[in-house]
Structure formats: structure tokens, C-alpha cells
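Researcher: For the record, we're logging two predictions in this thread. I'll number them. Prediction 1 follows.
Model: Prediction 1, sequence and structure:
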Amino acid sequence: MPAHRDPSSPDPYRVLGVPRDATPAQIRAAYRALLLTLHPDTHAEPADPARLAQVVAAHAELRDAGRHNTQNAAPPTGTPPAASGVPIPVRVRSSRRERPDIRVGPVRTHLNG
């Protein structure tokens, strides 16, 4: 969990109903299922806006934590790999253009008599 989490807010895993070792796909699936049941556009009866706000906040927190954890899990890239010695063809274009960017033709007007 991120360190900036408010201690008075409910546990995001409990709000979404997923275990602490849930994968990002499981978190996303639980969020979508809850969103379908709580969103006011999906049902004629009024939904609980406070519960919907909790679900959205919990998903945002876990989504950001998941991104942060995956970025930290990858080892830092050091030096780039050595060149393989294979020549790569490069095409250089001059900054001068031979043709204009926009071609303008004759303007036609239609008059209604």
C-alpha cells in the first residue's frame, strides 16, 4: 500500500472484496462487477453514492499501488546492450521541402441563380 493512505479510510481490499494477494486482473474484475451493481445509470432504483465513491477510491488506490509495485520490481536498466555489428540503413531527409505541404486548387462557387 502507498504510504500516503489515510488511516481512517476503509481497507481497499475489503471494499472490493478481494484477497490481499489478488492479481491486477482480479482487482479489475471485482471493480467492474461492483461498478455495474452500484452505478446509477445501470439501475432504475437509486444507488448508494457513498459506497460507489468508496469502490472508485479503492480501485484507484490499488491500481496506482499495482503500477508502482510493478515498476519497482523490475531491475534498473544499466548500460544499453552492446552493438551487434549489423549495419542499420538510415535514410536522411533534408529539411527543405520540394513540394509545399498544402496544395491549393481553383475555388469553385455555386450560385443559385
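Researcher: Logged. Prediction 2.
Model: Prediction 2, sequence and structure:
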Amino acid sequence: MAEEQAAEKRLSIGKIYLKDFSFESPQAPAVFQQNDWKPQTDLNLRSSHTKVGDEHHEVTLTITVQAKADDKTFFLVELQQAGLFEIAGYEGEELGAIIGSFCPNILFPYARETIASLIQKGGFPEFVLQPINFDALYLQSKQQQAAAQAADVADTEKH
């Protein structure tokens, strides 16, 4: 019986694709004449999931990178790296971990390479996104959800 259950579980990558991106450099060309290139860089990261049929899931990793100094934006990159995954035989926590951690881990190297290339083609110095621990982010998200649910239950019991 255990062998039958294991055989029913499937996880495969159907397609990896760039869903959307934009690059802005509102201070160009003046920004390239600065000698002291020391902007503050902000990174925003999120993922989303859409079920596409019974066994197919689209997972989209959205990354925004903004470099600015003195309230002036040097560049802004927004990218949506997506993948279509076949996921069958997984439910509950296993499915959540695949969608919230495994799939973003697959998508991130593609997004990182695209962002680095766009920034360099925009005339800026090399930009390297550091690795991201999606397992830890997923666990942190689950802990925050559990804490929020506990707070809601406690609040409901007070009334």
C-alpha cells in the first residue's frame, strides 16, 4: 500500500517563464556622472500561487529591487518569474511546503540572473542577489499565521 501511495505522488517542472518585468532609471544620465556610487538598496520578495487544473500549479516569484540615495531612485527593477508545476498526490502541509518553499527555490536562480543582467544592461555596476533561504521564510510565514490565528481565537474568547 505504501508503494502505491508513493507512486501516486508526482512533482515536475512543466515550464519556467518570465511573466512580467520592468526596469526604470529615472535619474539617467545624471546618475552615471556621480563619482560616489553608494546607494541604499531595498529588496522586496513575495510569492503567489494559482491552481491551474487538477494537478498543475503556477507559482510566481515577485522580486522588486530599488537603489536610491537622498530620496532619488537610481534604478527600480520589478520582476515576476513564474513556473508551471505538476504536483499530484500531495496535500496539506506537504503541498504547502512545495508551493511555499520548493517552487520558489527553483525559480530564484532564474530571477537572480535576469535581475543582474537587467541592472548591468541599464549601465549600473554588477549586482548580485544573495541566496535566499525559502525554507526558513516558509517556516516563518507558518509561524506568523499560527500566531495570528491564536490571537484571533483569544480575541474571540474575550467577547
